[in-house]
Protein 1
Amino acid sequence: MKLTFETLDLRTRHAFNIARQVDPPTRQTVWVRIEDDGIEGWGEAPATPFYGETAATVSAILPRLGDALVRAAGEDPFALERIEAAVAQSIGYNPAARVAISAALHDLVGKKLGIPVWKLWGLDPAAAPKSSFTIGIDTLEVMREKVREAAAYEILKIKVGTPRDREVLRMIRDEAPGKTLRVDANTAWTAKEAIRQIPMLEEFGVEFVEQPVAPDDLEGLQRVRRESSLPVIADESCKTAGDVAKLVGVVDGVNIKLAKCASLREAIRIVHAARAHHMSVMIGCMIESTLGIAAAAQVTPLVDYVDLDGAALLANDPFTGPGIEPDGAMRLGDAPGLGVSPA
Ligand code: MG
């Protein structure tokens, strides 16, 4: 078994800004390949500075993770639990680097068996809900243009947390009166501000609010949930399955991202931890190529809400494979492993 990797440039069609940051139009991602007996498994490392990683940090540690991988895999690449645990023990949190290896291993095993990963897990692609399409923060005119370009999507997710939220939501409701709207504040508010804003969100028929307050402000999250009518979903507050316990009674649901939980297997553990507490489950993404989206897509038959538009926001997707149709419907396909090939 051998691990190789290379850095790829991803360009978004529009600037993609959220409440806490203005993003550059080009970003780097890392394409990881694991070769075993002439078969290659692929994974993407969607490095996110908010969680402490860049393409450079991922590239710097991958050789070390590759050594741990080869030692742990030995003769049996199917020992996914043991291999992932060994890779995790060889490094700190580093979720993007680790998830690239997790995705590549699952791709490899699926290809060896000749079946897609969702089938390996016994899932039904028809159970996958439709994905939302995200409208990032920009001038009202650019946001209007983005909403018009997204005409085919039935569900829009709006980034909020600026003084113009009401104006933006009014514009979007005028443009898209029949669509399901969800909002994501990306930690922009205090609990008090969120409680003040939510009646306005309700006025525009918003379905739920994602991460209104800071990741560690669990008391604030709980207050927002108690004092407002909209369901609250934790994103930045929930990285791994271990975080679910502290969110019980605090939020209504959690947003899984492979770029936070570091493993496809951990994503499924989060689903079960949340379900044990009757919480709803969403799966989201970073700006990533179809390779990263295809890995998250395998989990979608298990969740209530999907937000996997990362590759749909790109001007230059290097890969083709599972992802979202123009109306947001999930396309999982029958190709083995993650089902991804070069574009
Ligand atoms: Mg979010």
Protein 2
Amino acid sequence: MSSWPGKLITFEGVDGAGKTTQVLLTAAALEQRGYTVLTTREPGGTRLSEEIRRLLLDPQFSEMAASTEALLYAAARSQLVGEVILPALESGSVVLCDRFVDSSLAYQGYGRGLGLDLLRTVNAFALVGLGAFYTIVIDLQPEQGMRRFATRESDRLEQESVSFHRRVRDGYRALAAAAPERIRVVDGSGTPDAVQARVWAHVAALLEDGEQGAPFGG
Ligand code: TMP
């Protein structure tokens, strides 16, 4: 059970999966039904976290160590949770977050090969005070996702190999299988409206039964 009146729903998936569009469509659907909605993104969502995002995604920092990367993502997250997410949940909003802690497990854990337990420890520190939430993984073949950003300049993470993005996708599926009470996987193929219909089925169920899960199980 969560300890605040609001709800946090995080959206996850490989690059180009369509999360951002689904966050916007879900926000509009919720607002239409009278919910107060706050949308935000990771890394980012605060003045400081957006600066950290700039560092993380800048292709010029090709020397960035995996450990540095993991800590910067966790630092950006900690600021967002304290400054934006917790206050919004306390005031009763539905918070939709474009990426959250599962991105670190999928990208830095499965993608980069950092230990999942270590990442959980670092992120438990970063998430101080945040309890249960709910997660939707938009599942798409990484090759399909990569085609969607092929027409613009890619950032540091998007420039990773197809095999990196495959590990990320497999990572999300493994995380979902291990935490079915919190994570729902939605097929990301088809039109945005078709995907939204699948997403909405889960969001509506969540709002009805209040089922959420702890960030790291248990
Ligand atoms: P975005 O383009 O979806 O906003 O995400 C920025 C990139 O950062 C994306 O390639 C995924 C990556 N990322 C991580 O590697 N670890 C994290 O914890 C987060 C939040 C994002």
